[in-house]
Design goal:
- The complex is a heterodimer of chains A (about 240) and B (about 90).
- Chain A is of the alpha/beta class and about 240 residues long.
- Chain A has 5 helices and 11 strands; from the N terminus they run E-H-E-E-H-E-H-E-E-E-E-H-E-E-E-H.
- The two termini of chain A are about 30 Å apart.
- By secondary structure, chain B is an alpha+beta fold.
- The radius of gyration of chain B is 17 Å and the shape is elongated.
- The chains are: A alpha/beta (about 240), B alpha+beta (about 90).
- Chains A and B meet through loops of A and helix 1 of B.
């Protein structure tokens, strides 16, 4: 069932908050700056309060104990996120949120410790590989976006079968121009088969204002707002 | 019955292990020669209450598959012993 579109109302984005999440307010700010509504959703909730889109933000959900995302996937709110995603709702996992989505089985593969055991913090260049995703619909294939990264476990890995599938189905959403962490095939972000769930290690919400050094994240957040169903009312 | 369980979690063969590689590279600088194939994993220990060993093993295997390991990159081996003393 396609989700109903509301064109005259700002889309409401739910930003998950686990104990240890620390990028939720950046995501809220970015969404509001682009004309969306944003609210925090505590991880113990069993519902999403009727939001139009979900951000699983960065940080260290549940302290990253055992593995990043391993405990977060059992938080009550994740069952609601899985149902929302299955219904076609846009879900974007950023950094730790990407790790949570892979652990929850909403995206394939896993994020390992960076090659060389280096914690990578800085701005990298990402190449948009497909515009058929809830995070890149407003971009152009081949666009190079300057977006910050900030992670120790961002080294994407998956089976060779999964990698072949990701390639064949055009599900590699963004690649690093200069691979910072050892990710297979320079993968920085991927989407699910239905293309409404995207995970990426870089932080577009931190690149939405000139004062932050880059505004290249705006096209991604705007894409998500468009996917959330209120394109007509969103202005950059 | 009570069992002591030890779960040994290792990266699957073929999955790069940056920690193991870093340790291996450091060994010669400390004067240790002849060591190779270093892999870093983790060991998780706990007690299990179950009717018998087969039931305990089934439970631990389920926990391993769904929680303690990420099957995309990790394998585990399970060692179970009847606890020496009750409780």
């Amino acid at each position: 069932m396609p989700r109903p579109r509301r064109v005259d109302v700002a889309p409401r984005i739910g930003v998950l908050q686990f104990p240890g999440t620390n990028c939720e307010l950046d995501a809220v700010e970015a969404v509001r700056q682009l004309g969306g509504d944003a609210e925090l959703l505590w991880h113990e909730r069993h519902d999403l309060g009727g939001v139009d889109g979900v951000v699983v933000p960065g940080g260290f959900a549940h302290g990253d104990y055992l593995r990043p995302g391993a405990i977060a996937r059992f938080s009550p709110v994740m069952a609601a996120v899985a149902a929302f995603a299955a219904d076609g709702g846009p879900v974007v996992g950023i950094c730790n949120g990407f790790q949570v989505l892979t652990e929850a089985g909403l995206l394939p593969g896993a994020l390992q410790k960076n090659a060389g055991l280096k914690f990578r913090c800085g701005t990298v260049e990402l190449r948009v590989e497909t515009t058929d995703s809830v995070l890149t619909s407003e971009a152009t294939v081949g666009d190079v976006l300057r977006i910050p990264i900030n992670h120790f476990e961002g080294n994407y890995t998956c089976s060779s079968e999964t990698l072949a599938q990701l390639r064949d189905q055009d599900r590699i959403v963004v690649r690093y121009v200069d691979n910072p962490n050892g990710s297979v095939d320079d993968i920085a972000g991927i989407c699910n088969e239905a293309r409404n769930v995207v995970g990426l290690m870089p932080h577009p919400e931190r690149a939405c204002h000139e004062l932050l050094g880059s505004t290249d994240g705006i096209v991604m957040i705007r894409s998500m707002l468009v996917a959330a169903g209120a394109a007509a009312s969103v202005s950059g | 019955m009570t069992f002591d369980a030890v779960v040994d979690v290792q990266l699957r063969a073929g999955v790069a292990d940056p920690q193991g590689a870093t340790i291996e590279r450091a060994l010669p600088t400390l004067g240790f020669e002849g060591i190779e194939g270093v892999r870093v994993g983790k060991s998780i220990r706990f007690r299990v209450e179950a009717a018998d060993e087969a039931a305990a093993r089934a439970l631990v295997e389920d926990v391993c598959h769904r929680f303690l390991t990420n099957p995309v990159i990790e394998d585990s081996t399970i060692v179970l012993h009847a606890a020496a003393t009750a409780g």
